[in-house]
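cron nightly-structures :: item 1 of 1
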Amino acid sequence: MPRSLVRGKRKPAFRASPTNPEIEEIQTEPKRHRDMPYAPAMRCGDMLFISGATPSPLYHKHPHLLHEHDHPNKIEDQTRRAMETIKGILAHQGLTWTDVVKVTKYLTDMRDQDGMVAVMSEYFGDWKPASTTICVNQLSTPGARLELDMIAMYPRDPAMRGRR
């Protein structure tokens, strides 16, 4: 049974690109946007590009303060934290796990893949987006063993489904 996410109402973008109003910056906690050198997600037309999520809190200081990055050691717990961050971004935009079309998974140890996939399936259930797994030497915070980024698609008007 997936960790359900009910489709809700999309919250407004934080701001739009000054040169292209089709590109919108998503901030789930707008008051904390100054803490981040990047947006948690960007909406581009019908697509949502979600920045990489680690076991660290979504909003944290830059440069990093180590006390904000106290990660559990088990890959399952780290995966759960990253998935909960992404779940919050999806919910903020009125999307669900079945709106995700692509996942990129970064691991510091490929032996962690099975534990990571087991936790991800708790969220996705039977839904299987396109996926790439990459092994990297190190991630942005000491102790982080994985990072996940995703691409989701906003549903079109239900009356238009199946028509092209």
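cron nightly-structures :: done
The beta strands are 15-16, 23-26, 41-44, 47-53, 100-107, 130-135, 146-153.
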